[in-house]
Amino acid sequence: MMSLDEMSFNDAIELYYEKHQAIRQGNMIKLLELKKKCPDIFDEKKDFEMRDMIEYAKAFQASDRYKELCKLEMKEKLTVISTEN
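Above: the chain sequence. Below: its structure as tokens.
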């Protein structure tokens, strides 16, 4: 068993989406597997925290600052290639 606090953000988000997809589909077997893997995912407080983090991340991705940071990261990766010999 693993705690949500010990997981990486990406793994925790993946579990969150798996849980909610299993709930929508009524997949009790998947829900039991998730409960064995990480019982914290079924804590209502943690569920709200995860939802809030996802909403915050989505809002940040839509911000001008995020777009600016992506451009800066891309500029750092790009290099000018000279074809002159």
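The chain has a mean pLDDT of 89.
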